[in-house]
Design a protein that fits this description.
79% helix, 2 domains, mainly alpha, Sodium/glucose cotransporter, single chain, 23 helices
């Protein structure tokens, strides 16, 4: 019966996505929903898109295995990104009437900068979207009590997300997310109420966490610890700002105000609501300590699903897994669309169109890229499964390349009039030449400074040096 309800939920999501396809008439409809979305839809998209598999499964698992400091990148860094984007980037970018965020790099600098940043932003999504597909595989595996392997679950989940994203585009993301946000909020609060009854209330859970020093957050007073802390915050806090999915949601609003405050409110809501799955998972220590100790050694991401299956009634299980599927699919659909659009519009457009720039042809080409990227994401998810990469780790790793390559040229291009194309070149080159070798020589945790943070600092230096350097005038004497 539980699996039947889950299948029904998937059918409803696909139906909404297919209905959304009727609103798509050209590439702009597909990518930005023609900038007609109201405030509550933008808030829902921002909140539900970020409230994904890592929030419900990855973040609680990291908290159980480590402590609050382990969550510095997400939800702290992720929320910081959304709030900063809304306050300092959304209005300026909205006024430019861009189709993708990478269009900014072409308009402000040149085609070469657009090409490189487009590739970097696209690559950053491999880990993020794969994390959602991996989580879908885990859910199907748990629901079927192992009858569906995680590999088979990944293939099923990827297929479902592809179907309704492929045809509906941004309209599909908007409609399905509005529905899924309702499922997420109501469902998880209902589950939290039931779990509180089993655990003896909220206070015993918080007291247990405090007794075991789980709220330790600030770094030690030494240089290495402080740099690691700041790097963890900024990798996602800054690195996810030049992302197509965040820009796309803000840019789909019907006005500047909607773009700005829809993103800010969505970010605040994400931060506050991320505490709910952490509370749910930690309650398992009081409700079923034997199950927790066993899964901590096997896969901590399964603690919350197993708590629900083992201790809550059928209706609550339906609500929980409906909410879980909602958060995963809302994130997966949006993050599948964003890199595909970037790849299509800013990297491959010249080769794909072959001189045919009609709206119908551009729309068809974009859909082909969506399907191709979905295949790449699925393959990456299967590889990550064999490599034992956790969902939270996959998301954390996603933003290193954009922090190093795309963030500095974006900020300088918006807020520094003296920023030049040479400065952008220098920032990208120095950032990459610093970051990539350090990833192999001194990975994070083995050196004084995390590789991506060193690359970010060199990108800042490169932008300053390249933009301030004066070209020597030719000697005509």
């Amino acid at each position: 019966m539980l699996i039947g309800f889950v299948i029904l939920y998937l059918v409803v999501s696909i139906a909404l996505g297919m209905y959304a396809a009727t609103r798509v008439h050209n590439a702009r409809d597909y990518i930005t929903a023609d900038r007609k979305l109201p405030f509550f839809v933008v808030v829902a998209m921002v909140f539900a898109t970020w409230f994904g598999a890592e929030t419900v499964l990855g973040i609680p698992a990291t908290f159980l295995e480590e402590d609050l400091a382990g969550l510095i990148s997400d939800p702290f860094g992720a929320s910081l990104c959304l709030i900063l984007f809304g306050l300092f980037f959304a209005r300026k970018l909205y006024r430019m009437n861009l189709l993708t965020i990478v269009d900014f790099y072409r308009n402000r600098y040149d085609r070469r900068v657009e090409f490189v940043t487009g590739i970097a932003i696209t690559l950053s999504y491999l880990g993020w979207v794969s994390a959602q597909i991996t989580a879908l595989g885990l859910v199907f595996n748990v629901l079927s009590d192992g009858s569906i392997t995680q590999v088979q679950g990944i293939l099923i989940g990827a297929s479902v997300v592809l179907v309704y994203t492929l045809f509906g585009g941004m309209w599909s993301v908007a409609l399905t997310t509005s529905f899924q946000m309702l499922v997420i909020v109501v469902g998880l609060f209902y589950i939290a109420w039931l779990v509180a009854g089993l655990a003896g209330g909220v206070t015993p859970v918080v007291e247990h966490a405090m007794q075991h020093d789980k709220f330790h957050f600030w770094p030690g007073l030494n240089t290495v610890a402080i740099i690691a802390f700041v790097s963890g915050l900024l990798t996602m806090g800054f690195g996810s700002i030049p992302q197509q999915d965040v820009f796309q949601r803000a840019n789909s609003g019907k006005s500047e105000g909607v773009a700005v405050w829809g993103t800010v409110i969505g970010g605040v809501a994400y931060f506050l609501f991320a505490a709910v799955p952490i509370y749910l998972a930690y309650s398992a220590f009081l409700i079923d300590p034997g199950m927790v100790s066993g899964l901590l050694n096997e896969d901590a991401q399964k603690i919350l699903p197993n708590l629900v299956l083992g201790h809550l009634p059928l209706f609550a299980q339906v609500v929980f897994f409906g909410a879980l599927l909602a958060v995963i699919m809302s994130t997966a659909s949006g993050t599948l669309l964003a890199p595909s659009v970037t790849l299509s519009e800013n990297v491959l457009k010249g080769w794909l169109t072959r001189g045919n720039n009609s709206e119908e042809h551009l729309l068809m080409m974009t859909r082909w890229v969506v399907a191709t990227f979905a295949l790449l994401v699925t393959l990456y998810a299967l590889w990550a499964l064999d490599s034992d990469l956790g969902i939270h780790q996959m998301v954390e790793n996603a933003y290193k390349v954009t922090l190093v390559v795309a963030f500095v040229p974006l900020v300088a291009g918006l807020y520094w009039k003296r920023a030049t194309t040479l400065g952008a070149y220098t920032a990208i080159i120095l950032g990459l030449l610093t970051w990539l070798p350090l990833e192999f020589i001194a990975p994070e945790g083995e050196g004084i400074m995390p590789p991506q943070f060193a690359g970010f600092l060199m990108a800042v230096a490169g932008m300053l040096f390249g933009s301030l350097a004066r070209r020597r005038e030719p000697d005509l004497s």
